[in-house]
Amino acid sequence: MKNLLLKSAKVVGFLTLTFFVSMLVWANWEEPPLSQKLDLKPIHLAVFDLDKQVNAADSSLISQKLSAVTGVTACTINPEFKTVSVTYYDDQVSEDALKAVVQQKDYIASKVNFAKMEGPKCPVPMEYIDFFTDMKQTLCLR
Description:
Elements: H1 2-29, H2 34-37, E1 44-50, H3 56-68, E2 72-78, E3 83-88, H4 95-102, E4 109-111, H5 126-139
Antiparallel strand pairs: 1-3, 1-4, 2-3
């Protein structure tokens, strides 16, 4: 009985060590992204639907006003689909402030909710993906 327990402990220890080493190799296999190397803070995305078509002059004006807001990293206006996309730092500017800038030119903006969109969705829960991403960052020695 003692011999069987000792062999089982060795096998479990070997499997645990193999798993840890393989995870360490996997985490350090690829070069980390530049954003992780430079420790850049994350940006957020806000997409607004507009109630009417945007002409070229209004598009340029909205783009200039959004670009002048502190914390906005990029913005783009798609007149064909009547959308405004803005990437920003959420600690410097709020989504409501961005919406107010978009609505200054007599447009009604509504935030696009991507969670309610139809179509194929990833069958893997996001918590699992986040767990492996965090583990990879933790085990990366670069």
